[in-house]
Amino acid sequence: MHRHFLIYKPYGYLSQFVYDLKRKKKLLGELHDFPEGTMAIGRLDEDSEGLLLLTTDGMTSYNVRSKKVEKEYYAQVDGAITPEAVEQLQKGVEIGFDGKKYTTLPCKANAITETPDFPTRAKKIRDERHGPTSWVSITVTEGKFRQVRKMTAAVGFPTLRLVRVRVGNVHVNNMQAGEVKEVETFSI
Asked: How far is C-alpha 22 from the geometric centre of its chain's CA atoms?
């Protein structure tokens, strides 16, 4: 019988259970006593936060990581994002990946007018004295290394905070940073 979990990965944690390098890192296993064989479905980098799905079922992991499943992110960016920049994101932008230039697939993107209500982040983001910030929703079906961060930078609005809010039909809702919920299955 496989087990499945939702977690709100906090800022500063790696999306893994083992880290072999000498530097001390915060790992998912510190947040909950997961059963042996639990794996993260996809990853969120150390500086990102939000919804992360975990499972003991490799086939579930494979299906969720496919390009058929949307992943939605809210990115707080440096500056007031423009309609032109949002349109560029929607059409696809050129980013660097694996030492080569790569054009992202078209995606859904839109400016968010209300500041999202997320848990307070462990590390403070610069404040408004350094200029305005804004939020944008970006929904992708691919997941290249640090892709969403590279996309916002490519249109002139570097990401300051990145939160994954949805994977398929599974939403982060009002989970708190570090919160873990066990679920029967993922309705992707």
From this structure: 26
Residue 153 bridge partners (DSSP): none
The continuous run of DSSP H or E covering 63 comes out as: helix 58-64
Cα 108 to Cα 34, 57, 136, 141, distances in angstroms: 34, 29, 10, 10
126 pLDDT above the threshold of 80: no
For position 129, what pLDDT does the model report?
76
Distance CA(6)–CA(77), nearest Å, equals: 26
Number of helices (H) and strands (E) in the chain: give both, helices first.
Answer: 3, 13
Alpha-carbon dihedral 34, 35, 39, 40, rounded to 10 degrees:
-20
Residue 98 annotated among the catalytic residues of the structure: no
Q: Quick one: pLDDT at residue 144?
A: 84
The C-alpha atoms of residue 33 and residue 113 are separated, in whole angstroms, by: 38
Contact between 147 and 115 (Cβ < 8 Å): no
Q: For residue 135, count other CB atoms closer than 10 A to its CB.
A: 19
Would the pTM of this model clear 0.90, i.e. be above it?
A: yes
Tens of pLDDT along 83-116?
999 999 999 999 988 889 999 999 999 999 999 9
Closest CA to 48 of 116, 119, 149: 149
Annotated catalytic residue: which of 45, 78, 98, 127?
45
Q: What is the mean pLDDT of residues 25-29?
A: 91
The alpha carbon of residue 145 and the mean position of all alpha carbons in its chain are separated, in whole angstroms, by 11
